[in-house]
TrEMBL record:
The protein's name: Flagellar protein FliS
Residues making up the signal peptide according to the UniProt record: none
Organism of this sequence: Sporosarcina newyorkensis 2681
One GO-annotated biological process of the protein: bacterial-type flagellum assembly
InterPro entries, per the entry: FliS, FliS_sf
Amino acid sequence: MYIKRAIEVYQTTASTTTPTIDSIIQLLNEMSSLLSETQATTERVANPDVTEPLKKLQYVLFELMGVVDQRSEEGKRLVLQYVVINQSLLTVQLHKYYELLPEIREQLDQLAEAWSEARQNQRRERFTTNSL
């Protein structure tokens, strides 16, 4: 449910005034929340079916990969990070290796934090002038 809402927000970004960076941060936070819920489910239920939440997370990762400028060095590193997260999600899905969920969540939280820092730097550059 969180991912569905985040995907809708992401898809309307082009037609709204919400900056892309804010939508990315929101998506990453929503992904982290869904991952927390999935992890809680795996801890409560013996044989949980977490296929759908993991598929949603993968879908959002692919969407995020699509907006990255892969010509830059930073873009290449970011796509690589998204690919690593996707591979971890696949491992969880195929091999039921739920121990990876906290690591994946930590990676998502770190990405959200990095994007937040980038947003702050971007704002600082825009609003800093040499005059009083």
